[in-house]
Design brief:
By secondary structure, this protein is mostly beta strands. It has no helices and 8 strands. Strand 4 and strand 5 form a beta hairpin.
Length: 137
């Protein structure tokens, strides 16, 4: 029997094809307990272009609702790059982790957005890891 290496499974998104090329998608975690603290996000993936810029965001459920950047943008190419772990709350515009953990109909949900851009070359984003760790109350 020959040695076999399992191939990675990627969630792939094709970029727009005019202007600044962009891929934009989000993953969602469920079951995060109320009162969780110390949320940290790690993402691993690649872009088929030579040097796309990739930025992570988390969704702020509280007012003003919307995407809030976490960490610094990273240059990503054809080889997998690990981005993070980045604090998803407790700093900057998200001082409280309760802002990123959904309530009501969205109870326990945390959304993480991956935005990649490349000035003029079409590309495909491939993600094979999105991880959320936190401290339970």
């Amino acid at each position: 029997m020959a040695n076999e290496t399992p191939s990675a499974k990627y969630y792939k998104v094709t970029s727009t094809t005019t202007g600044t090329r962009t891929t934009d998608w989000y993953g969602q975690f469920q079951g995060v307990v109320a009162g969780a603290t110390g949320l940290k996000v790690t993402y691993e993936g690649n872009d088929s272009a030579g040097s796309a810029t990739q930025t992570l965001y988390v969704w702020r459920w509280t007012a003003p609702a919307g995407w809030v950047q976490i960490g610094s943008p990273a240059s990503v190419g054809p080889a997998d790059v690990t981005v993070g772990p980045f604090a998803a709350c407790g700093v900057g515009p998200l001082p409280s982790c309760s802002q990123v953990v959904g309530t009501g109909a969205n109870k326990g949900r945390v959304r993480v957005r991956v935005l990649s851009t490349q000035p003029a070359t079409n590309f495909v984003t491939g993600g094979d890891l999105m991880k959320l760790v936190y401290d339970a109350p």
